[in-house]
Amino acid sequence: MPHSRPPQTRHVLIVAHGAPADPEPQEAALQSLGHRVAEELPGWDVRGATLAAERRLEAALAGLDAPLVYPFFMAEGWFTGTALPRRLAAAGAQGARVLAPFGTDPALPALMVEAGRNAAAEAGIEAAGAALLIAAHGARGSRTAAATTLASVAALERMSGFARVLAGFIEEPPFLADAARRAARGVCLPFFALAAGHVVDDVPAALEQAGFEGPLLPPIGAHPGVPGLIAAALRAAAA
Question: Are residues 162 and 130 in the same domain?
Answer without folding.
Answer: yes
